[in-house]
Amino acid sequence: MAQTGTKRGTELPFAPGQEDVESTEPQAGTVPAKSLEILQLLWNERRVLVKSLLIGFVLGAVLAFLLPKRYTATTQLMPPDTQSTSGMAMMTAMAARAGAGGVGSVAGDLLGLKSSGALFIGVLRSRTSQDRLIEQFDLKNVYGTRLVMDARIRLDENTSISEDRKSGIITINVTDRSPQRAAAIATAYVDQLNLLVTELSTSAAHRERVFLEERLKAVKLDLDDASNQLAQFSSKNNTLDIQQEGKAMLDVAASLAGQMVAAQSQLEGLRQIYTDNNPRVQSLNARVGELRKQLDKLGGTKLDPSVATAIPRSGDMPYPTIRNLPLLGVKYADYYRHTKIQETVYELLTEQYELAKVQEAKETPSVKILDPAYVPERKAFPPRTLITLTCAFFALLAGCVWIVGRKRWEQIEANDPGKVFARDVFRSVNSAMPWATPNGSSWQATTHRAWLRMARRKAADVEADSLPK
């Protein structure tokens, strides 16, 4: 029996009558028919596309030149010095000052910070720093806002603060319409950072410095009071230095006593020879009396201890007597000792205060400017070339969409429900426009009259331009 031309157990690659599907697919490198049709349609309407491109280019250029110029000033800060072990402790304690205007909320979890650079960024973005800048540069009027909150939002939008992860350098970019103001605001950011870090510092050295400063004020008042009491006591009693005055007075008393003993001896010798009426005897007698009087003045009278601060003087002596010196010395020593104690305490506190200020300066992270903010010479916005080209591209794209959409609209049958509905909507909207005939509405009648006036005026202008001159 004749075989059918195929062996049993084998199958044909495709059933009889089945077409090769792969043969109908477009081969690589060929363009589909629909794409060719769209390209052909766009090429036929190339004039419309050129007009769309030109219109988009002109509109983009106008828009680019109408947008106000904006300038960006940049300043860079060196990473904070992290060699001081107490510096991070100070920054951790800064969160306690939450009432300082938002800094505490920004730096609420300082223990989790990897470096103080993140803290610096938080301080720069704090409400306290921004409010001070708004007040300093009157940014409410500059930005045209009534509320400080709105000005703060605008300032935050115009400010970019970032930290380089590798180097730790902090970059501050400030954008503004005025290049001078942009540079000034960038510099003011650094100044506010320095002020806030110093004000909010709560390190051990800072607390010690504040305590010593308060103690210095109190000790200075005590020292002034003690010095005043000593001066008043010395002025009332004519005492400058009790020890020196006592030594001098004893020397004078000893000299007077020696002179009196010598005069008395000479007087007794003359009395052995002459009578009391002898002029030499009378002269020596008077001398002895004067010396005794001077010794009595130096010795003085016994003093009542209850009136130690107002000691009377003997006769017209400008200094206290020897008998009053011991009690005066005790009171004087008390005033003098109190004054010296306060003076010593003041000197020690002054030394410690200066050391605390130096230590505080070491522990406070310093803000070192790497690149100061200069007045920018080139604008940062708007990118006029990019805006112009973008508008031209979108206008060209819109032209392509319009051409393809119009072609598809024309290919839809007139009795298609969607097309009928779209036409009804278009007629309804068009009938309400100013150029349509009034349909009884007073508002449309008013707008229609205004439209007719504009059309007549435009026609008259065109006719006047067409007349020969």
Task: Provide a descriptive summary of the structure in words.
The chain is mainly α and 469 residues long. The chain folds into four domains: 40-67 and 383-411, no CATH class; 71-202 and 364-371, Bacterial polysaccharide co-polymerase-like; 211-357, no CATH class; 417-446, no CATH class. The protein is 64% helix and 5% strand. The protein is built from 17 helices and four strands. The protein has helices at 21-24, 33-44, 46-66, 85-93, 103-106, 116-124, 127-137, 139-143, 148-157, 179-199, 204-237, 242-273, 279-299, 325-363, 384-411, 417-431, 442-466, and strands spanning 71-77, 159-163, 170-176, 369-371. The protein has a four-stranded antiparallel β-sheet with strand order 2-3-1-4. Strand 2 and strand 3 form a beta hairpin. The longest helix is centred in the last third of the chain and has 39 residues, at 325-363. The protein is rod-shaped, with a radius of gyration of 53 Å.
Report the count of strand segments: 4
Taking the alpha carbons of the first and last residues, their distance comes to: 106 Å
Largest beta-sheet details: 4 strands, antiparallel
Give the number of helices.
Answer: 17
Mean pLDDT: 74
Structural class by helix and strand composition: mainly alpha
Rg from Cα: 53 Å
- Residues in helices, as a percent range: 55-70%
pLDDT < 50 runs, ≥5 residues: 1-24, 83-114, 302-315
Would you list the SSEs in sequence order as H and E? Answer: HHHEHHHHHHEEHHHHHEHHH
What is the number of domains? 4
Strand order of the main beta sheet, please?
2-3-1-4
| Beta-strand fraction estimate | under 5%
| Quaternary status | single chain
Outline type: rod-shaped
